[in-house]
Amino acid sequence: MLSLFKKTLTTGIVTEKCKAPKDDELEALGITIKRRIDKKFSGSIAIRAVDAGSCNGCELEIHALNNPFYDIERFGIHFVASPRHADVLLVTGPVSRHMQTALLRTYEATPNPKWVVAVGDCAVCGGEFGQSYACCGAVSNVIPVDVTISGCPPTPLALMKGLLGLLDR
Amino acid sequence: MNWTTIFLTQHVGWIDPEMPDKPIGDYIGGVAHHSPLNNVAVWQIEDKHWQQFAITAVAENLRWVAGWAEQANEQFIVNASFEKNGVYMVLRTAINASKPELPSQATVYPAANRSERHTQDMFGIHFIGHPDNRRWTRHQAWDKHQYPLRKDFPVQGEPAEITPPDMHYDFVKGYGAGVYEIPVGPVHAGIIEPGHFRFQAVGELILNLEERLGYVHKGIEKIAEGRTPESLARLAGRISGDTTVGHCWAACMAMEQAAGVEIPSRAAFIRGILAERERIANHLGDMGAICNDVAFTFAQMQFTRLRELWLRTHASVFGHRLLMDVIIPTGVSRDVSEQSCELLKKDSVMLRKELADIMTAIDLNSSLEDRLYTAGYLSPDIAAAFGTVGYVGRASGQNFDVRRDATYPPYDQVTFKVALEDQGDIASRFWVRHKEINASLKLIEQFIQLLPEGEISTPWTTPTIDSEGLGIVDGFRGEIISYVRFDTDNKIARFYPRDPSIVNWPVLEKLVLNNIVPDFPVCNKSLNGSYSGNDL
């Protein structure tokens, strides 16, 4: 047990400062609705991540948001286990047709007001997979999308900026 | 002597009936002019012997590796790959497209089960005597009598506006007093890929588990057709995001074989560094996640911290946190400078030191031992019967590693130890990963030390039509097989990647038995199958 405490103490706090995104950065992320969201969610958002056919690359980087360097919970952003608890759906992947109904139902199960963030190139525009007999392409082909965060996959920093853009600044 | 020689002398009766007067030796790997694949033997047999071959093969302890099919005019070409002692072979047969059926090998090899069902769904080939002929990859996105990988199926298909959910899959039922069913997924509670698990339980005890995957089927095999080599490499790098290096390497290796391109030695060493760094990054993530699933947050935080540091070095040295698109056909796209080598070396020293601290703290933690030891037990017998590969196999005594047993550059120029455990429980799969990290660190150091000077890529030669290649590499999950056949004009005619998850997923159904439902997440994480790599 002592070695555990020792390691914790010697590691210290590695969490990094993260500046709130500037206006031009927000524009690049396609966020034009931030003021509206500020009022609705009062500085805290609950996220339900939905993998709709991703290669798992985006999930790895979404996971990284919870590591001690980014520690996204300090901004009041946390991931929840059910869409019924969520304000925001974080959707990845080129929406495989086998996941289409599941995504629609998850969207319906999320209470209003709700926002959809499409994460990664696949979710934003279909990416490497595009539209086919097996994929619907962009998430916006299936449910309304409010914010897009591109990248293959987007870095945790890009994700963080995109999500902070949804919050009160 | 090579087992293929012995095998052929004993069982030559039905190999290649069309050319009976050719000497046996001509059909054995190494004799390039008779084998369309220059690294493995290809044996063409009559379709009626398909199952008979499997019966003989299993008696000779051959491991069933992969199965895939292809349409060629009025015929379907069906392939199955086998391995023994690190020597691979491909069994091939042609069947008539008007009545496509073939005796099933799944009756003999459980590993062939889902693969044959995939082929059945994608090509409409009926496997006679298959123990379970329910659909597998097909849900409701295309009709029962349509087969996406046939040539007459357009890549866009005819999808409905909204694809209905897959409601009527015939799950195994449990009966009896107190037996109840738990359906889980496709959308899971965590940030993980989608798939469905159906449990039958009594109290907390799992009586049976059935996996229903296919939710992230993206038509990778279909959209690969007609791509250029560069474009296929990009696609291969996105079969499973965590194995981007592994899949990309396997696909490039297959394409390079087909084109007869030999990559520069420096490129091979850089690929080796990439693959081992990917292995370490994923093992760190998995070890943290296993601890997290038994609520040991200290380890989760420490491992995710180390993983983050590791990925940041990826970004600074190779320009991408997950190392996507660094491997290209003909070599690699980024060189490593002297300075980068120093950074990589320092990184290895750092990780070794950090891990020593953390593993000591973990090893002394009895609450972790309580949860991980004896849980999720996979016996060596079952692991062998299912042809389990990678850390799942190696934690259950399956002493096989492509890097050592069917070696390829740069692994042929270094020495390393393959991690092995035989307890078969979650703790074994945890410790095997730790051992593999240490082995990989040593490998990276050797690669940097031996890194030859020279080019990092070589010119591409357009392969002739029907050139084939079979890439076999060891990804972080284990053996990856990648089959490529070229069309005219440098275009891909057929691409089939076999992720290690395809053979490892079925054993999850076995290793959870007699565990309690709350231990399923940690059992699942200890296997960490790729949904995307499985569903294609």
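Chain B touches chain A through 65 residues (CB under 8 Å).
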